[in-house]
Amino acid sequence: EKAKNSLLYLDGVSVSFDGFKALNALSLVIEPGEMRAIIGPNGAGKTTMMDVITGKTKPDEGDVYFSGSVDLRRMDEASIASLGIGRKFQKPTVFESHSVWDNLELALAGPRGPFAMLFHKRTRAEEERIEAILTTIRLGEKRDWLAANLSHGQKQWLEIGMLLAQEPKLLLVDEPAAGMTDAETAETAILLKEIAKTKSVVVVEHDMTFVRDLDVKVTVLHEGSVLSEGTLDHVSADPRVVEVYLGR
Ligand code: ADP
To answer: Ligand 1 in contact with 40 (CB < 6 A)?
Structure first.
């Protein structure tokens, strides 16, 4: 019932590995059009949480709903992806020997795959979508570059673009700022904010400068559940958060 108006609804989610609780009654609600930053020390359960959302890991207990009433616990990874949940891992996995444009076109072809693309005459509408994505990911001028020649940050943006080509409703992004220059990090915050105007975004991040730039609600995970939630200023002032970060 509470889940009805939410895009993503996790309630009481627990996951154990050999008796160790990686997630311990985790609850998280993401509204349509919301961007949320997830922080927390190593081992807090951030990756496991993403794995539960994408169906890679099945919870032992708890509810996981998407778009109100879709029960993700009953679905496999491919079906969950096709609902419109896109995940970007930390390490970019672009096709290095293809151009920026071709990478986006391949992503647009989606499950039809590279082979089908050979026989596919792209439509004007598809070209316009690729153009729009190029603008969003700041790579319009580099459309003909081989992906191999992009900087680390630009590869991350291209991969975000490849996810956008699949028109997700929810984008899960794992440490986008890792390994980026300061300028790229600042630009990534702006870029994600633009994307979040039309999609929900969940960002797992360690870089607090970047989290500050995002300027969104922050959820602090610790030992598999939510320790604190609110603005970055609010959670930074929370004594429990201070203890977890400084007490180690
Ligand atoms: P984070 O991403 O916040 O660093 P993780 O979700 O990766 O945290 O891990 C949470 C805890 O669960 C860690 O203590 C980790 O060692 C453990 N863990 C994660 N995945 C597995 C697994 N497949 N098998 C055993 N333990 C795991």
So the answer is: yes
